[in-house]
Write a structure and sequence with these properties.
single chain, 245 residues, mainly alpha, 6 helices
């Protein structure tokens, strides 16, 4: 009868299991670390792309604000002249200039609308979390708030201009007003003195409205300058923090 010998496998030491566990743990941890680094790298690239896009938007705002401030400076001069001329006893002799200055009372060449495409992406898609630096995030939100307030202030100014238009209809001739604009809506100074309605009460009320428009113009011009400085400061900060030229 054959006798079968039983082979005995040597038991593994506890250190063997420890090293197996350690290697498995390191493999999982390194995989997690690599994925985390990859996601961080992707988010960092997206953050920088948003910042570069935001800078381009704000630079366009700056260009627009410079033009608006220049237009407001010109508007002040025209409103001052309008008040003086329309209240002269011989105003009819200066009506070509009165019509010309009137054109700037309600001319919408000074409305501000922010180029906020990137800003909306940051806010609406939850991408604001990509902005890791608190100072940068705060500055972006501060500029956004100031921009929206500037737009709202423009809406109030538009409402005041509408009341001016109603009063102007009591003084100016619509057919002649039509001749003061070209096909591109640019202002044209007439080479003759068109008729003015001799309505002293309307002129009195119109003068007050012009006064209010001047005050709004000055106030919004200051707000434009403040927003311009905020825009310049924001771009300076963004370029410094993200090492951009």
């Amino acid at each position: 009868m054959e006798v079968h010998a039983h082979t005995h496998t040597a038991r593994k030491k506890w250190t063997h299991y420890f090293w197996e566990f350690l290697m498995l743990f390191l493999a999982v941890f390194c995989g997690f670390l690599a994925e985390n680094i990859r996601e961080h790298s992707v988010e960092h690239r997206r953050e920088k792309q948003f910042i570069q896009s935001l800078i381009r938007d704000v630079e366009m705002d700056i260009t627009r604000l410079h033009a608006i401030i220049d237009n407001r400076d010109e508007r002040i001069v025209n409103l001052d002249s309008l008040i003086v001329l329309v209240n002269r006893t011989d105003a009819a002799a200066y009506s070509r200039y009165i019509y010309h200055h009137n054109s700037y009372a309600t001319r919408m060449t000074f409305r501000f609308y922010s180029n906020d495409g990137t800003m909306q992406q940051l806010k609406n898609a939850g991408n604001l979390r990509l902005i890791r630096k608190q100072q940068v995030s705060d500055s972006i939100m501060s500029y956004d708030l100031a921009s929206r307030l500037m737009v709202q202030s423009g809406n109030w100014e538009e409402e005041m201009m509408e009341t001016y238009r109603v009063l102007a209809a009591e003084i100016f001739n619509g057919i002649e007003l039509e001749k003061t604009r070209d096909e591109d809506n640019n202002v044209i100074r007439l080479d003759y003195d068109p008729p003015l309605k001799d309505n002293k009460e309307a002129i009195f009320k119109l003068t007050y409205r012009v006064h209010m428009l001047k005050n709004f113009n000055r106030s919004n011009r200051k707000a434009n300058r403040d927003l311009l400085q905020k825009a310049v400061n924001l771009i300076t900060l963004l370029k410094k923090e993200y090492h951009l030229k």
